[in-house]
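All the exercises in this workshop are built on plain-text protein records. A record pairs a protein's sequence with a compact description of its fold. Backbone structure tokens are a discrete shorthand for how the chain folds in space. Once this layout is familiar, the rest of the handout is easier to follow. As an example, a complete record with its sequence and its structure tokens follows.
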Amino acid sequence: MFALVLVFVCLVAIQARIFNFEDLGAKPFDRSPEVANANRDLFNATLNSLQRGDIFFVPHKTFHLNGGIKARGLRDFTLKVDGTLSFADDRDAWPKKEDGSVEECIYLEDVENVIFTSSNKGTLDGNGKAWWGAIKFLKFQEDRPRLVHIKGSKNVLVERWLLKNSPYWTFYAEDSDGLLIRHTDVDARWTNADTHTLVDLQAFNTDGFDVTGKNVYIHDSVIWNQDDCISVKDGSQDMLFERITCSGLGLVVGSIGDSVVRNITFRDSYMPNTFKGIYMKTRWYDGAPIGDQAAISDVLYQNITMDNPEQYAIWIGPAQQTGQPCSLLWTITKNAECHMSGYQTWSNIVLRDITINNPKNSPGVLMGNSSNPMQGIVFENVVVNNPGTKPWGDQFYYCEGMNGVAKGSTTPVPPCFQTGSQ
């Protein structure tokens, strides 16, 4: 396993200036649109004035503010949130970009040596219920704000935050080099049910942590959402995720298109009542296999336990999502289809010491493309206890287009795998 090294520049306390959001004039507990805009403007002005070593402090109160917090080029500062930043829930009053789409709640670009922290559990609340729902999705699609979007960062630490009810993706770290997230939780749900009800699943696209780049380490976090819990996206390498408790659409690599993803590890994690579990997916491309220019390799899932997964515990294959040739209704309705691209090359994918208890359906889908079969797919001690039988019956897995081997105590063995050490 790779050695993941994150280097943070220490902030020199004697030089630090501390800016208290309330002392600067922010008004807590006031939900009025006027105060939400004023608090947003003050937050923006303060954030963009920070110098090296400064600390921006949000005290233990609730501050309502509108979206559109933006900053670029900041270095060596700390944002300490001991209270709650609660974002407005009025789409009509939400700030828009030049193209008419909504601004993010928080957008930071080109930041380096930054700490986001709390002395207890600071909360960012996106008030997502005002943005969710099937009817609103049909009208607005994915034009909803991410709670946090950081683009082009180096050496960022996020700790002891609760990211709650994001309207869209919760935390998107795009093109990161050196990202450490610890003891930071995600919660996106419509009800208090301990399963993913049809109502809760209408919190569409509420991904937990979406990451691209390199040298990313996320650990000791709890995620409950209605989409990918953690998603490793295009062009990523050298990432470790461990001691994660998550329930949603899984621990995910993808969806991957025309890029290289390698050296990714998920381990020592627990997934209660999750919808999907281990989920690796690629997008469709019409072209012939392109070799190492579009590839997924050296991915390890190890020591992961799932209880009562609701759909598929393991899915390795095409992205099952809107706009792709693998329908969300595949196996549910008669005419729905699912097709796998042969454009990307897959190799050295290992699932080791995986325990799946009482899945409601068949354990999984393993779908490669016969024009470019997946190579080196290993199931070692992948044990499914009391597997469901729908839709694959006593085959247990849909399995084609891959060269796989089952080792150790793996049971049931996917029907297209060899057994032993071949």
Observations:
- The longest strand covers residues 209-224.
